[in-house]
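call fold(seq) -> tokens
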Amino acid sequence: MRKRHDFADALRRAIKDSGQNTLAVANGAGVPNPVLYRFMSGRRGLGLGTIEKLMRYLKLKITKAAE
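ret:
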């Protein structure tokens, strides 16, 4: 379950760093705002397509975490 929190934390930081709120990011990425809101509040997961849209919009890349 920790990996989910790591991704949620990284996504929160990326949204904050973008200077936008979650509504603006959801709209810009083409993701329904309720989907992003429920993920950010820990009530649901995200599908791969949604993750790809958010990462593309926020210009994020997946890297291997240091162990």
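The mean pLDDT is 87.
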